Amino acid sequence: MSSQDKSEVPEEHLPEVPASAHVPAESDPFADPGLPAHEPRRTDIDEKAANRAERQVAFLFVISMLATIGFIWSYVGIDKDRIIDIFFFGKIGAQNAALGGTLGIALFCIGAGAIHWARTLMTDEEIVQERHEFTSDPETREYAIREFTQGASDSVIGRRPLIRRTMIGAMALVPLSGVVLLRDLGPLPGTKLRHTEWKPGTELINEATGLPIKPDDIVKGSLTMALPEGLVEKYGPAGQKEELSHGWLEKAGMSAVLLVRLEPKDVKSKKELAWGYEGIVAYSKICTHVGCPIGLYEQQTHHLLCPCHQSTFDLADDGKVVFGPAARSLPQLKIHVNEAGNLAASQDFAEPVGASFWERG
């Protein structure tokens, strides 16, 4: 008989299926087993156990707070150059070890405290929620609000002020670790960006030879690199150093100047003539765009070119920018000849050298 014929047979005439043919639900391997009976925890029935769990959670949060304070102290109180030997790790920086250890403890204790809180004090009633469509109808929003309110109530945070206060303290303190790390973006510059090694009377020393510079040493069309006398005496001339120290590079980068001799009639600025000596002018060697060293001089036009981004400065017109991305003129160093017949600085640069910075204004 076809399926179509079967559908036409009245139900009362269909053969009766024996009861033995039915498969019991408990033998169905795909049947929903449901949830086991809920068993209360010790903290649910013993208030002393609940209070002990509360103190344990609070203790973890307090440890996190102390670890965060230890992190901040390690950053400011431990010498970054100090080396210690830790078992099989070998020799490592003491500050790095302290920072990693304290921050790890602070984060671990917050997580451990939250887990212990959830497992011992928050409600553990099993709840089954059937999958539903992802819609945001008013009923769903009302349900979410009710669930949130119920969750807040089940967390017993309102009745456990010790946990609430210590958790807030731990969560409030641990972000300070990240804030403190922002300090590591670099040392605070103070006034270092506004001042160099040039002082009134400081002699100009040839960067390559380490000797004082006399006016006759500067010939027309040449470019001479100079540094302040104290810097060369402390670190030595660049041409005689096999390895340049960090201190030399930092000081030289701020204080390096370029000397060039111009015809006074070619100079367009009276101030530039007054700050020079018989046509010899001194300008910062550091480009005002991003701080690259400049060293390309065009004698006919008196233009100074930065090799990094092609900013071009006119040394005959106060070092003004004539091309390129630089936004400021090169700072000029006021010079004179001292009693020994050597070129010397009359003062420091009148403005910060190098690239612009946000505090410059």
Automatic annotation (TrEMBL):
Keywords: 2Fe-2S, Cell membrane, Disulfide bond, Electron transport, Iron, Iron-sulfur, Membrane, Metal-binding, Oxidoreductase, Respiratory chain, Transmembrane, Transmembrane helix, Transport. InterPro entries: QcrA_N, Rieske_2Fe-2S, Rieske_2Fe-2S_sf, Rieske_Fe-S_prot, Rieske_Fe-S_prot_C. It is found in: Cell membrane. Its main location: membrane. Residues 1-41 are annotated as: Disordered. Residues 254-344 form the Rieske domain. It is a multi-pass membrane protein. This is Cytochrome bc1 complex Rieske iron-sulfur subunit. It comes from Embleya hyalina. The lineage of its organism: Bacteria, Bacillati, Actinomycetota, Actinomycetes, Kitasatosporales.
